[in-house]
Amino acid sequence: MGEGVAAGPEGLREMFPVLLLVLLAQGVLAQRVRRPYFCAEGDECYSFITICRDSEYETRAYEPSVWIGSVVYPNEERYRAIDRLRDYFNQKNQPGIQIEKTVPQVTRYQYLDRKPIATVVYMMLPRRFQRNPPLPTNTMVFLTQFPALTMFVKTTRSWLTSLLPHAQELLEDLLRQSEAFIADRFYIAEYSGPLTILNRHNEIWYLSSGYPLCASRYSRWS
User: Fold this and answer.
1) Contact, 147 vs 157, CB < 8 A?
2) Residues 100-129: tens digit of each pLDDT
3) Statement: residue 65 has pLDDT above 80
4) N- to C-terminal Cα separation, the chain
5) Is 206 exposed, middle or buried (0-12, 13-18, 19+ CB in 10 A)?
6) Cβ(191)–Cβ(156) under 8 Å?
7) % the chain with pLDDT above 70
């Protein structure tokens, strides 16, 4: 490598996955020592690093992780799926152990006839269970592996009933920026429970499907 020569756009694109893995490992370790304030309602938090941020949204990289999930069935309220996951954490698993609470609680929404519909709810397993998770006893609950993910994130203090308009705002922001992302679904990440009044923090996520454009504008990658 020649001294004093910055990586060009193509070289940056090739270097990005390696740099991301290094920074993600460093960021995950840092968050385990000093967690973000909005993780206060859980014993453990989904770890990430911020790749870049602007006034409209943040681009983050998340570590691979294991989650428990339950489908929100047609004609069923979302809370039914949440209750099934809470039961799993409250000893309804094999071998019948209590599992520490994690945040955020994540709900996947998909657009059906242009209307967002809750389809699956997820809760992350604590680190001590990532390699050997307890098995669910309810057939409506399943284990799933999230790979390393890049997300576009919009933060809000809103309650769930007010989050859906923010999802539309983020969708429009990403389209305007010509980001590569999966547009037919989004995720609501709830860090704050419905009874929390002060310092609320919830998020809307869209999953990146390519190279985040904003990374090339920052010298940290060169």
Assistant:
1) no
2) 999 999 999 998 888 899 999 999 999 999
3) yes
4) 12
5) buried
6) no
7) 80
- Do residues 199 and 215 make contact, with C-beta atoms less than 8 angstroms apart? no
Rounded to an integer, what distance in angstroms lies between the CA atom of residue 24 and that of residue 48?
A: 7
Tokens at residue 34, please? Answer: 């000093």
**Looking at residue 46, what DSSP letter applies?**
-
Question: Phi then psi for 20, rounded to 5 degrees?
Answer: -65, -45
- The pair of structure tokens assigned to 86 is 């809470």
Question: Tell me: the pLDDT tens digits for 184-221?
Answer: 999 999 998 877 777 889 999 999 998 888 766 543 43
Q: How far is 160 from 152, CA to CA, in rounded Å?
A: 19
Neighbouring CB atoms inside 10 A of 143's CB total 15
When pLDDT is cut at 50, 70 and 90, the band that residue 156 belongs to is: confident
Using an 8 Å Cβ cutoff, are 181 and 207 in contact?
yes
What the block records as the tokens of 46 is: 């989904």
Angle subtended at Cα 202 by Cα 106 and Cα 164, rounded to the nearest 5 degrees: 80
- Cα distance between residue 11 and residue 5, in whole Å: 11
Task: Give the pTM.
Answer: 0.82
d(C-alpha 210, C-alpha 212), whole Å:
6
On the 0-12 / 13-18 / 19+ scale of CB atoms within 10 A, 37 is exposed
Considering Cα of 217, then 17, then 8, then 211, what sign does the dihedral take? negative
Single-letter residue type at 108 = R
